[in-house]
């Protein structure tokens, strides 16, 4: 095994060496796998896709072969093939550089290290950008930068998405600063393209480093990678020289980048065509839900139950989690990972899928089950909140509704979270969700705990499962803080008004989603069907509103929480005899009606004018 790993590392290093050492043999058929030693010459998988059937190692592919493996047969049409730079562009010996270019052109059959064109993938018209590592290491030259910019402009004009398949070993050192500035050209071209609300999907193959990684790769809305690929700004040689150990190359492979939040997914080459077809379909929403027949709906009366009973059911270890519901109510779900800053938090699961034929972005807090504790019981970290923000922004860009599934006891607190900006990440998540221009629905499916729940709950419609809870803190914590454990958890749970019925009465949620008689954990399929139905009904309602109307209603919804009294009169009278504020929830929780605080005036304030403060805003 050690020898196999050594062979692999030597191969990866050699394929990322100086461009003068790249030969046609790197993409020619091999008789045996360098990693596992299995015979390759008779393998159809290796002949077609250059993938070892034994260890699944992905060998290099030429740009033309990559195109053929991705597109619908016969659909590719190359664009801007003959582009040349005018005048001298080399900062080194021009004759030497021209000779290098000429040699690679003859060997690869390409004019430059890039092929661009239009095609269809899974029936979706697409613009394709493919870098070829076999041509001077796939480095970014002036011509490559120009062809990328032209591809962006072509896609913008025709309103086409772009798929970029990248293999690049660094900069075109022969062109010096001119090569470097192509990153700026690519970036400004992308920004114009992005304004059209069109997706850029990048596929990173081995290797993707340097200028290509720091521009085209990381500008993408969705980033995929092939297994084991060396990916990162620094080349394999640079990393080896800086750390002194070949084994430390793992810090810049695809798997490491995924765990660090920099990739959405690692996709085997055999599955890449189908994956791209799915993503292109999901990011180009063509359908919107509408009623065939709209009927008046009323909230179905639900049986009253004790608060502590709801707490137990919401926390049940077999209760369906976010991923359980997603798998049952969404079709073609493709999970998107990473916050693109520091990490991947499994306590937040999110991605694109079809709900009733319409594309949605669904984001859920995943607490795991009794056999899976790696999601920290759904307690969201700063990386998780940043991932949620990233997915919300993608949905806003592509004009896709956002659905959040809330199930958390609260945010992941601790020194590490504080250092990573927990408070800022929560505030940013709430701010972004409040400002989205697309329909938003939040569904509390289990525990709706404190700021961790509210961060994903600033929505046009807030739903709540019958046996879920929504609370500022756990009953046990509240009992300890307010009563020093002198009051039982059951009594405190009642005072917190945390059940679905309480939250509906207090106008904290818009609708309760009924559960099977035996509760969701006993009949998860039935619970999912009911949740799906209520989400579809609400999504159809708010999906027909204008963006302005949604924004205005969302503002009012959260602005008007609570009722208040504005006291007009002599301020010194307040100092002499202050108002006695009595909140009925403290003495008798069952008598609170709506989110109302009752104000009792003292005798000394009888002559002070008390004016009701109301919102006088025009109707929709």
Quickly give the structural class: alpha/beta
How large is the count of helical segments?
A: 24
In total, the number of domains comes to 3
**Shape, per Cα inertia axes:** elongated
Distance between the termini: 69 Å
How many strands in all?
A: 19
Rg calc: 29 Å
Low-confidence stretches: 13-26, 581-620
What do we call the CATH homologous superfamily of the largest domain? Answer: 2-enoyl-CoA Hydratase, Chain A, domain 1
Instruction: Kindly identify the CATH topology of the largest domain.
Output: 2-enoyl-CoA Hydratase, Chain A, domain 1
Mean pLDDT: 85
Per CATH, the architecture of the largest domain is Alpha-Beta Complex
Helix content: 25-40%
Report the β-strand fraction as a percent range: 15-25%
CATH class of the largest domain: Alpha Beta
Biggest sheet record? 8 strands, mixed
Brief summary:
By secondary structure, the chain is an alpha/beta fold. The chain has three domains: 220 residues, 2-enoyl-CoA Hydratase, Chain A, domain 1 (Alpha-Beta Complex), CATH 3.90.226.10; 253 residues, Alpha-Beta Complex (2-enoyl-CoA Hydratase, Chain A, domain 1); 48 residues, no CATH class.
